[in-house]
Amino acid sequence: MGPLRADLLKKELSIFTYKDLLDHFPLRHIDKTRVDPIRAARTTIDYIQVSGTLVNSQCLGEGRSRRLVATLKDATDELELVWFQGIPWIQKQLVPGQTYLVFGKPSVFNGRLQISHPEMEVLAPAARPAGSAVLEPIYPSTEKLKAKSMNGRQLGKFIRQLLEALKPADLPENLPPGPLEKFRFPSRFDAYQSIHFPATEAAYHQALERLKFEELFFSQVRLSLVRLERNRHSRGVVFSQVGDLFNDFYRQHLPFPLTNAQKRVLKEIRHDMGKGSQMNRLLQGDVGSGKTMVALLSMLLAADNGYQACLMAPTEILARQHYESISVLLKDMPLQVELLTGSTRAARRKPILERLANGEIHFVVGTHALLEEKVVFHRLGLAVIDEQHRFGVAQRARLWKKAAVPPHILVMTATPIPRTLAMTAYGDLDYSVIDELPPGRLPVQTVHRYDDARASVMDFIRTEIGKGRQAYIIFPLIEESEKLDLENLMRGYENVKAFFPEPKYWISMVHGRQPPDTKETNMQRFVRHDTQIMVATTVIEVGVNVPNATVMVIESAEKFGLSQLHQLRGRVGRGAEKSFCILLTGRQLNSEARERLNTMVATNDGFLIAEKDLALRGPGDIEGTRQSGELALKLADLVADKKWVEIAGELARRLVTADPELREPAHQPVRLFLLSQKGKLAWSRIS
Ligand code: ADP
Ligand code: MG
Questions:
Q1: From the CA of 275, how far away is ligand 1's center (Å)?
Q2: Within 358-472, where are the H helices?
Q3: Do 613 and 561 contact (CB within 8 A), yes or no?
Q4: Could you say which DSSP state residue 403 is in?
Q5: Is ligand 1 within 6 A of the CB of residue 109?
Q6: Which atom of ligand 1 lies closest to the CA of 293?
Q7: In angstroms, rounded to a whole number, what is the distance separating the alpha carbons of residues 575 and 33?
Q8: Stretch (H or E) spanning 230
Q9: Is any ligand 1 atom within 6 A of the Cβ of residue 574?
Q10: Ligand 1 in contact with 285 (CB < 6 A)?
C-alpha cells in the first residue's frame, strides 16, 4: 500500500508491521451469500447486509452538516445511505441505477432509517453457488480510515494478500508438542489462515481456541520467567529491626489510628522485608483506603535499617502532592525528603543527585525521572510505586538495578482488580489488600442526570460553593480525537464561566496539553482554595487529594470506563462533608453505557465495580495491563476463557519450573518464539 495509507494504519490502528496486520483479528465473520431484505433493517441489530438499486444521490446541508445522501431500494423497502466525509470521492463512485451489496449498521436520523458510511460493492451477478456459506471477515476500522476508503473490507483484502504470500516457515510453530496434540490444535500457520478466512465455522473456532491458548500460555511463560529471575536475585535487603524513626513517628506524629486493614498489611510488609529475600508486593486498596500511610511507614522501616527509600508516582501533580503531604508529616523528624521530577530545574537537580548518591537524602519522591540512569542511590532499600498500573515489569526491573542487592518493591494500585485476575495479570507479585476504609467516611452519593439538567446541576454547585465547598467538572479527553475533545473542553470551560463569573468565582483549568508548570499552578490554586471550581480532563484522575471538594461532575460520563469513573469519584468524599458525584450524559445511550452508569449509582465498592468492569469490558481493557505489555490479550478473555487461563497458566508454570533455561528439545519452539519477540522483555536467562 502507499505511504499515506500506511501512515494512517500506524496512527489509527498501531499497525506497523506485517505481524501487526496479521494480529488485526476480525470482529466477526458474515456470510457473504446471505442478503437480508431492507424491511428487516432495525436500529437494534448490529449489522445488516442488503442488496438493492441506488435510486438517487444528492448533497445536502452546508459546512459541518454537509452530507451526501443516497437511497437504496429493494423489493421490500428503501433505506437511506449517508456520508459525511470523503464526499466528492464517494459521489464519483456512485452510479444511480446500479445494484449494490451494502453492509453496515442501521441507525435513525431525523426519523429516517439509514446506514452511515456503509461498505458497498457492486453486486456481481450469480456470484456463488447457492447454499454454500462464504465467511467474510469484518475488521474493526476507524472513521478516518473509512474516509480514506480503508474500511473493514479493504483491510481484509490486504490481510488476504499477506496471507497468500506467507509460507508455513514464516509463522513457525511456537507451542510445545504436548498441548498441540492433546487439544488437537491446528498449526500456528493454519490457525492464522483460518482466523481470518475460515473455510468453515468449525475451522474458525479451532483457530480461535488455539490462538487464545497461545496468547495465555505466553503471557504466563513470560511472567513465570520474571518470577524466576527475581528468585535468582532473591537475596534481599534485610530490615531486621523496627527502630526509633518508625516508633517515634507511630507514637507522636501519626495523625490518626490505623485501620485494622492497614495494620494487617503493614505486618505482611514488615515480615516480607525482614526475611532476607526481595519483596515484590502488590498492594491493592480502594480509593481513599489510606495506602499512602502504609507506604510511608514502610519507608520509615527502611530508614530505621539505614536504607534510603523512594516513592514513584505516575504524574508530576501526584508526585508533588505526595512530596508535600509526606514533608508535612515528617517535618519534626530527622529525615531529608526531596522531590525529583522531569521538571526539576538543573540547578536544583544537581545537588539532589549528589545528596542521593552520598546518602544524605533519606526519601525521594518523584516520577519516571527516578528511573533515569543518572539517579544513583547510596543505599536504596525500598521502592514504592504508586498507582502501579502505569508501570510494567520492565520498569520495575530498572529499579532493582539501582542497588547491588535489589531493593524491596511495593506497588500500590487504586484500580482494584479481582483477585483471580490480579494473580494472572501480576503473576510475578505477592498480593495484599486493604479492604476497609478509614472510619467516619460518608459514602459519596452518585446520580445520573441528562445534559438538559445542566443548569440545575450548576445551581447545585453554586449552593455547595456557598457553603465553602469546591467542585470538579471533568471532561473526557480521548486520544483518538484529542483535538476535538480539547475544543469540547474549552467550550465547556466557557460555559462553566458563564455560570460562575469572575470575580465572584474563580476557576482552575487543567489538561494534558498544558506545560507542567501551568498545570501545577492551576492545581495549586485549587488546592489552596483560591479557585472554587476545577475544570479538568482525566489528568486529575489518580491520587489528587483536596478534601474540601464535595462535588464531582463528569461530563459525557458515557465515554468513561467504569474504573475510570470510580477513580474520578474517589476525588471527592475525602473530607468530613457529604459529597456528590453527578454523571452527565445525553439521552442516547447504549445498553452497556447505561449499565456502567447504573453500577456507579448503585455502589461505591471498588472491588464490585472492578468485577462489573471485567464482565462488561473484559480484562484486555484493564488499564495499563495493555500498555505494560504483559497481558496484552487480543483474543482471550480472562473471564470467558477461564478454562484456558487455568490450563495454559499451569502448563506455563510447570514448563518454566522444570526447564528454566528452555533447553529441552520439546521446548525449542517456545524458546525460539520468545527470542523472536523483539521489543518485548529481553530475557537474559535465555540465550
Ligand atoms: P489512597 O489509598 O487512595 O492512596 P490516601 O492514602 O490518599 O488514599 O488516603 C486518603 C485519605 O485518608 C487521606 O487524607 C489520608 O490522610 C486519610 N487516611 C488514611 N488512613 C487513615 C486512617 N486510618 N484514619 C483516618 N484517615 C486516614
Ligand atoms: Mg493514593
A1: 28
A2: 393-400, 419-425, 454-466
A3: yes
A4: S
A5: no
A6: 6
A7: 62
A8: helix 201-232
A9: yes
A10: yes
What ligand has the least distance to the C-alpha of 325?
1
Q: Is the shortest distance between the CB of 292 and ligand 1 below 6 Å?
A: yes
Shortest-distance Cα residue to atom 1 of ligand 1: 288
pLDDT for the residue 627: 36
Task: Look at the pTM and tell me if it is higher than 0.85.
Answer: no
CB 151 within 8 A of CB 81: no
Q: Does ligand 1 have an atom closer than 6 angstroms to the CB of 416?
A: no
Nearest ligand by distance to the CA of 433: 1
Whether residue 329 has its Cβ less than 6 Å from ligand 1 = no
Q: Mean pLDDT over residues 361-377, rounded? A: 93
Average pLDDT over residues 132-144: 79
Cβ(68)–Cβ(129) below 8 Å = no
* Partner residues linked to 196 by β-bridges: none
Half-sphere exposure of 136 (CA within 13 A, CB side): 14
pLDDT digits (tens, 9 = 90+) for 46-66: 788 899 999 988 998 888 888
Torsion angle, CA of 534/535/537/538, rounded to 10 degrees? Answer: 30
Q: Cβ–Cβ contacts within 10 Å for residue 153, how many? A: 17
| Residue 274 CA, ligand 1 centroid: distance in Å | 26
648 alpha carbon to ligand 1 midpoint, in Å? 39
Question: What is the strand order of the sheet 106-109 is part of?
Answer: 106-109, 112-116, 78-83, 67-73, 48-60, 99-104, 119-122
Say if CB 95 and CB 54 are below 8 A apart: yes
Rounded to the nearest whole angstrom, what is the distance from the C-alpha of residue 574 to the centroid of ligand 1?
A: 8
The answer to whether the CB of 259 is under 6 A from ligand 1 is yes
Q: What ligand has the least distance to the C-alpha of 313?
A: 2
Gap from CA of 120 to ligand 2 centroid (Å): 51
DSSP 445: E
What atom of ligand 1 comes closest to residue 434's alpha carbon?
Answer: 2
Distance 360 CA to ligand 1 centre (A): 29
Q: Which residues contact 387 (CB under 8 A, 6 or more apart)?
A: 313, 314, 318, 412, 413, 414, 415, 542, 543
Residue 98 cell numbers, joined? 446500479
All cell numbers assigned to 324? 508535600
Q: What is the pLDDT of residue 299?
A: 97
The owner of cell 488546592 is 527
Q: Which amino acid is at 245?
A: L
Ligand 1, atom nearest to 547 Cα: 14
Name the grid cell of 485: 475533545
Q: What share of the chain is helix, strand, coil (3-state, %, to 5)?
A: 45, 20, 35
Per-residue model confidence (pLDDT) at position 632: 64
Q: Which ligand is nearest to the CA of 290?
A: 1
C-alpha 292 – ligand 2 centre gap (Å): 6
Ligand 1: which residue has its CA nearest to atom 17?
290
Least confident range of 307-316, 326-335, 536-545: 536-545
Residue spans of alpha helices (H) in 358-481: 393-400, 419-425, 454-466
User: Kind and range of the H or E element at 582?
Assistant: strand 580-585
Evaluate whether 405 touches 560 at the Cβ level (below 8 Å).
no
- Residue in 155, 161, 171 with CA at minimum distance from that of residue 25: 155
Q: Report which of 203, 75, 53 is spatially closest to residue 133, judged by C-alpha positions.
A: 203
CB 386 within 8 A of CB 312: yes
Task: Report pLDDT for 541.
Answer: 59
Atom of ligand 1 nearest to the CA of 257: 23
Residue 581 scores a pLDDT above 50 = yes
Higher pLDDT, 487 or 176: 176
The separation between the first and the last C-alpha atoms of the chain, rounded to the nearest angstrom, is 37
SS3 call for 565: helix
Quick one: pLDDT at residue 575? Answer: 83
Can you tell me the distance from the alpha carbon of 618 to that of 640, in angstroms, rounded to the nearest whole number? 8
Question: Does ligand 1 have an atom closer than 6 angstroms to the CB of 290?
Answer: yes
Closest residue (by CA) to atom 24 of ligand 1? 438
User: How far apart are the C-alpha atoms of 176 and 25, rounded to whole Å?
Assistant: 24
